[in-house]
Amino acid sequence: MKKYLVLILIFAMILSMTACSPGQKSSSDSKEPADNPAVSDSSDPGAGQKPKKIALIVKVIGNQYWSVLQAGAEQAGKDLGCEVIVTGVSAESDIEGQITLLQNAVSAKVDAIVIGPVDSTSLAGPVKEAYLSGIPVVLVDTVVNGEDYSAALLTDNIEAGRMAAEEMLKKLRETGLSEDKESVIAVQIGAAGSQTIIDRLKGFNEYWDANAPKAWKVLNDDIKVNEGSIEKATAFGQDFLTAYPNLVGMFGPNNGSTVGFVTALAESGRKDIVMIGFDFSDEIANMIKSGEYICSSVVQRQYYMGYDGVKLALELANGGTVTEKKIDTGVLIVDSSNVNSPEVQSVINPK
Q1: So what's the pLDDT on residue 49?
Q2: Residue 32: its pLDDT value, please?
Q3: For the segment 242-259, what is each residue's pLDDT rounded down to a tens digit?
Q4: How confident is residue 289, by pLDDT bands cut at 50, 70 and 90?
């Protein structure tokens, strides 16, 4: 009898050891889901598995805005134990180049893709193909037309455009500009096909038309497209200064356009022009901090777009599901009055 009792005890011990063997989790050892409201569930890849590979495809490799987003993505890779593979094109006009990078990522069978599409229409089909292949696709900064992607982390660009117009009107009125004086606002953009820029211009013009004096006009019939080239953006800024004697303001709805306008103003020494831009490049940062120019910038949280984009992509690759498809990462207006505040510093110097 004792012999059978010993055998029963040994068998029970073996079952217990099998239930908690390496690569499996007992209920007491299971991890809590990642703290991300956009994901309802995620699965632990388990011990002994290779790190997940996340492809990050940025718009313009080396561009300061995208370098900050890349830094956030790479930090997420280090923190979360996944491999972030970074690629990108050299200009926003290189649509075919970005499509090729996306197709290469699919062919390489990466575990997830994080991409900032250079063109919302042209990339819609390739993004859909990647998504339907079973690879999670997380968009950052810009969406594509349609709903065939896993999730998108971006700014509410229409609202951001409205905020930019409100700030422009505020600054113009602070200069004492007469509401009866015929005055114009110059605009240049990085790419005509970017839904991000389309939405920002829409928001800007909606707010402007509803609130600006009739004598103050936006040069919507003379919007320049610099294709992400800082050289072109700077030249366009100089051209506007020369061509329009009644120019009172400049609006750059993306980083490159802002850098071009700021550079043109600095080179010309024009401190009478109100400059409203996007993001926080070194150029506009120096202009704001100098206190000598009339300027503000709508600052996005692109570091967190990169970090949270990789985090979300990894959770989806591990079996998580999305509960919120579009995630607004928010913006804030930065000028000389608040550039050194803790809130602004936490965004422009996240690490």
Answers
A1: 80
A2: 35
A3: 999 999 999 999 999 999
A4: very high
Q: pLDDT band for 191, please (50, 70, 90 cuts).
A: very high
Q: Which CATH architecture is the domain 157-278 placed in?
A: 3-Layer(aba) Sandwich (3.40)
The label of the residue with tokens 């996005």 reads 300
**Structure token digits, residue 269:** 């020494």
Output the 3-class SS for 52-95: CEEEEEEEECCCHHHHHHHHHHHHHHHHHCCEEEEEEECCCCCH
Neighbouring residues of 156: CB distance < 8 A, sequence distance ≥ 6 = 328, 330, 331
Cα separation, 100 vs 106, whole angstroms: 10
350: its two tokens: 């996240």
- Specify the pLDDT at position 38: 58
The domain made up of 39-154+302-329 has a fold known as Rossmann fold (3.40.50)
What does the alpha-carbon distance between residue 153 and residue 176 come to, in Å, rounded to a whole number?
A: 39
Domain range list for the chain? 39-154+302-329, 157-278
Distance CA 238, CA 24 (A): 64
Domains 39-154+302-329 and 157-278 share a fold: yes
